[in-house]
Amino acid sequence: MMENRVFQLDQLSRFDPNRTLPFSHHDNDGCINSNTASSYKNLAYPLNVYAHALFLQEGRVNYLHYGLFQKNQTDLEAAQQYSTDLLLNRLPAAPCRILEVGIGLGTTFSVLIQKGYQVYGITPDAQQIALIHKRLGSQIMVACQRLEDFEAAQDSFDVILFQESAQYIEPLVIFNKGLDLITEGGSLLIVDEFALRRDEVGVEGLHLLSDMLALANRLGFELVEQLDLSTMAAPTLDYLLQVTTRQRQRLMNDLSMNAECLEQLEESNRLYQEKYACGRFGYALLHFRKKQPPRWRLRLLEKNQAPDMLALFKQTFGHSMTPSMWHWKYGAGRGRAIGVWHGDQLIAHYGGMGRNILYFGQPQAAVQIGDVMVDSAERGILTKKGPFFLMAATFLERYIGYGKPYLLGFGFPNERAMKVAERQGLYAETAHMSEIEWQPLARTPQWLTRLHVVDSSNINDVWIATAIAQCWRSMAADLEEALVGVRDWTYLRDRYLSHPHQHYQVVLVINRFGRKVRGVLVLRHTAEGCEITDLVSPLKEIPLLITHARRIAGMSGHHRLSCQITENFASYFVATGGTKQALPICIPANAWSAGPVVETLRNRWWLMSGDMDFR
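The chain above was modelled as a monomer; its predicted structure follows.
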């Protein structure tokens, strides 16, 4: 919806992107005019700014959604009415049951009732509900609810209607609610803005149109009609810029706005103009019809469904994941997961844990794919209609690439899983893992350096945090031409010292005189030997750190010291006297959704066993 989108630069006024937004569709029976102009000042900012700007310009406000301008048309009200009529003309004849998602001030809702439809409306904004009740009466069927929380009996509606609201709702929620609430053969109607292509780093709020269409098909919806309305919608932006420029002083005076805020809003409009002009953003009408329900249902996996995931994990891998381990991976927004259900049974899971990285020296977000599993009864279906493809393609479309929450994805699949994903066009290989092995050393003193163990007794020591920060800055400078997960103190603490089950030894290597920290070792002691799980240091210090790791392994009575590292950086470790062998572990990249070219990522990752969530 344009009114919230234009003002998104004001972070204090942004709405939750997973909510429907309060919209305002006003007809001639309930428009904002001289008698009701004060009512919109109670609406959530920035909605009131547009209402006031248009009121000052036109003397009344009939609509706040995009207008669709026909050739040589300049009248905004007529263009907005054309947009609403276009949507209403796609409805089946009354009477039928309609759920309007995002009712604004109740204009479209009121028109539908007048035409004889049975309508139920929802919006998450309590102020809008109060205003609608004031205008239309408390008896009307509206509720202050998000679509995510809305419940009704199966097949309760013939149509679900979204007018500039779908862009703020998770697409999986849209289509799953459609499966639950719409009768077979019923309609799902969307008029909204979409991203038409993505080719830049950074998160964009609009849903990518091609992803939306693909997901609809996966979830059992047939595309009946698709109209590209971009050219007709774009002049709305020109009109809004003219209005805010012309009414600048009145807006600032009446709404207590400062000039900087208004300039930000206008700049946002200009940016949208550019994106419409170059074909990155657009406006479309989509009409879907519900077909026979699909065999499997794709859904986001929520916290309350973690027990289902843990049961599938045990069945798939033969050992348990504890609830605390699940929380360590996915809790508090650290991870994302998509599940596949057959009826009430979770039969497949595809998870990802967020990771801050440096992308050729620049901060970016990545996601490590993990806990990929399919019930053994369904595992044989490895086509593009099977559970693995459905959830993997959907995860990549939803989360990874240009305009998505994570620029890159990575993981550690075995060769069989990698080949399946490559064959389906989901992944492309970027690197291999290697293992380096050394013989432990005897307890020989190192006169110039010593060890300092980091544990619960000194975890809050400011000097430790400062020293590790310096080590990480030096390492990051050496890896400006690489891809590497951030290894600052916060990461080391949360990854290794706060692990719910594994015990790691975190050791600083320090000059004996002067206390300069040369590097950080993270070691894991098991019956198989001592493993360098991670290290943080300038690359020139790797030989020193390996020497100390070999000493620690010897003092601990281990027969071997090992380390896993991406093949492209293995030479730094082999040069210290280690022997190398290749591991059957590939590092994939997203090859499905638009993102950085795979060739630019190949042999660029610095990854160690500590980057694996299961080590």
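The longest helix spans residues 259-277.
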